[in-house]
Write a structure and sequence with these properties.
It is a single chain. This protein is an alpha/beta fold. The protein has 2 domains: 186 residues, Aldehyde Dehydrogenase, Chain A, domain 1 (3-Layer(aba) Sandwich), CATH 3.40.605.10; 128 residues, 3-Layer(aba) Sandwich (Aldehyde Dehydrogenase, Chain A, domain 2), CATH 3.40.309.10. It has 12 helices and 11 strands. The strands form 2 sheets. The chain has a 6-stranded mixed beta sheet with strand order 8-9-10-7-6-11, sandwiched between helices. The longest helix has 18 residues. The chain starts with a helix and ends with a helix. GO terms for molecular function: acyl-CoA dehydrogenase activity. It comes from Neotamlana sedimentorum. InterPro entries: Ald_DH/histidinol_DH, CoA_reduct_LuxC. Pfam families: LuxC. One of its GO terms (biological process) is bioluminescence.
Length: 353
């Protein structure tokens, strides 16, 4: 199978997904294999919501829309242009996926197949409805994919390299278990925002998207912010208020009530507005419905701190702070070359011996 065939298959998948990228799902004409797969994918979306209470219609649509927009001929060719994608000998690459947000492991899945390798997927129990169905679509869009995609719930066997995502604890297990295989092992990371106090209300509204999308469960969600001494938190709360309906989601509300009770009983200082809390804390990982913050006095010192702890940080949201910063509101819309943990997975896949 040539690279052009693989690209075309994913482009067809993108066109298929585009039908499900709005609240009003609309079956379009001229989508490859649509009669065979359209109704089935609607059902898989329903199953995903029933299985995982965090996978709301809104968040499923958001994820699908991102992938529908990413899987175009132009985007895929632009992404792959810097690499030498000749006819490399196909290896079998195992992927152990997280399940915190919908289709969170899709980029790894795409990367393995687009480089010509075979993929062996071990999914999280929290996100197992969508990807096998999309893999089946790919096999119909490009029959040469048949036999190159496997899913398993058993012990991983007969693979040449592995990409595994998990917690810091599971990462230690992965590092031991896969010590004799080429591997990318991803641990816990969180994202931070650096504010100056000069942000507009629109900036803060966009920051709210980075905080609340997927209920804050993704590593690209902002869970910590740095603010200058004397920062006016009233402006921050005004900027995020349009997300107040998030408290109507039962699982989020339960977390909010629980964490608020813990903070009150422990007599921690915190600020809250009825659906969200902020607490001064040095940690990066904040609980659901909570954002940690720290004050800073010197931008240079803060840059040194974040650089020294970069292995704990996925994204930095800011304006004119660092070369690799992300604009407010864009953390959950990564480009194809925005690699998790800044590890180039395509380069890794092309170097498998």
């Amino acid at each position: 199978m040539q690279l052009e065939q693989r690209i075309n298959a994913f482009v067809n998948l993108g066109l298929f997904l585009k039908q499900f990228s709005n609240e009003t799902i609309k079956k379009e004409n001229n989508i490859k294999n649509n009669d065979l797969f359209f109704d089935g994918f609607k059902h898989q979306l329903k199953l995903a919501q029933e299985h995982n209470g965090w996978f709301t219609t809104e968040n499923l649509i958001f994820s699908i829309n991102n992938w529908a927009n990413a899987l175009t001929t132009t985007n895929l060719k632009t992404w792959l242009k810097p690499y030498k994608l000749g006819n490399i000998p196909p290896k079998t690459v195992a992927i152990i996926m997280a399940g915190n947000i919908p289709l969170v492991g899709f980029h790894d899945f795409l990367s393995v197949l687009i480089t010509g390798h075979n993929v062996l997927v071990k999914q999280s129990s929290n996100d197992k409805q969508l990807l096998p169905y999309l893999a089946k679509y790919l096999e119909y869009a490009e029959p040469s994919f048949k036999g190159k995609i496997q899913f398993t719930e058993e012990k991983l066997e007969n693979f040449d390299a592995v990409i595994a995502t998990g917690s810091n604890n599971t990462a230690r297990y992965f590092e031991y278990y896969f010590k004799n295989k080429p591997s990318i092992i991803r641990k816990n990371r969180n994202s931070v925002a650096v504010l100056t106090g000069n942000e507009t209300i629109d900036d803060l509204k966009n920051l709210a998207e980075d905080i609340f999308r997927y209920y804050g469960l993704g590593c690209r969600n902002v869970s910590k912010m740095y603010v200058p001494k004397g920062y006016n938190f009233n402006v921050f709360f005004e900027g995020i208020y349009h997300w107040h309906n998030i408290i109507e989601h039962a699982k989020y509300a339960n977390n909010y009530d629980y964490n608020k009770a813990v903070y009150l009983m422990s007599e921690f200082d915190m600020l809250e507005n009825g659906f969200f809390m902020i607490k001064e804390d040095e940690s990066y990982a904040s609980p659901i419905a909570t954002l940690f913050y720290e004050y800073y006095e010197n931008v240079g010192v803060l840059k040194e701190k974040l650089n020294s702890e970069k292995e704990q940080i996925q994204c930095i949201v800011a304006r004119n702070f660092s070369n690799d910063e992300i604009a407010f509101g864009h953390t959950q819309m990564p480009n194809l070359n925005d690699y998790a943990d800044s590890i180039d997975s395509v380069e890794f896949l092309l170097a498998i011996p």
